[in-house]
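Provenance and format

Records in this collection were gathered into a single text stream. Each protein contributes a sequence line and a token line. The two records reproduced below are adjacent in the stream.
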Amino acid sequence: MYRLMLCSLPLLLAGCALWLPRHDPGQAWIELHAGEEQQLQALQVDDKAQEDVRYFQVSPGRHELQVRLQFQVAPGNIGPTSQAHPRTCLLSLDYGEFAAGQRYSLKAGSHGFRPWARLYDAHGKPLARAREGRCGEV
């Protein structure tokens, strides 16, 4: 019985790490969404590192969000005999009207070698576009 409990403890702790914290109603919540086989991570808010890379939670007002997008460039975008190429890019998004208690979506993807990201409100209305930073080993 002791061994069973000891073996199940790491699984229990790993499962707890998957849950997102509760949304603070005094702040804006920004969910991250990337395309299939892509990874989007929250890096910084106003040049301060994020503790959790799965989301942003910010005070009302203007903020600059920085994300990392990792994706594969398809062989058709490189050359006829090429293989898929992994690419990592930093993107920055500046938005001045984050509102307390509101939920936003930051969606990202890529077209060939170029990454993109857009901020949407809870109704799917586009609010802002991110600008591409550097790409490579970031």
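Adjacent record:
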Amino acid sequence: MNTAQPVSGAPAQTGPAPAGSVPGQQPPQKPRRRVLTSLGFQIFIYFGGWWDVAYYILNILVFVYKGLQLPYPGRNFAMEFSFSWLWILIEAPRLFLASKGNKTESVGPIIFSCILAMPLLAMYVYFVAFQTYVLRIDQLLNGIAIAFVALQVVFAILTTVRFILATRFT
């Protein structure tokens, strides 16, 4: 048996020991920091993004159907169709900010995403109640969309409170 190697079979330490440590002891480890991000919130953001893709495609198809089959006043159709484009300009940054805030444990982006959720909810309510023609598919699509945004806002508020409490009492 070679006396230079320990009995455990692990190779002997050949370099100098780190400064301030006792030979044969493990170096002190940093205390672990709790991860505060919300998995539930991130799941709703992820599946909300996929729902948004399906919603947008179906919403455009419904508008095409309405434009071709129903006697739509010209101005109303143009305004309601442009809301679909405005919707995507708000929804994509809102989901990005919510995801970024959750992953980086930052309160600011999450709060801003909640602020951006308010005009989206107003658009969904408009699409459900105040459009020129409201079809059952409109009610279904916008009802699901309202549920997704509402759940995301609830998770955003809970996550924000968790981040604030963790930094306040640490």
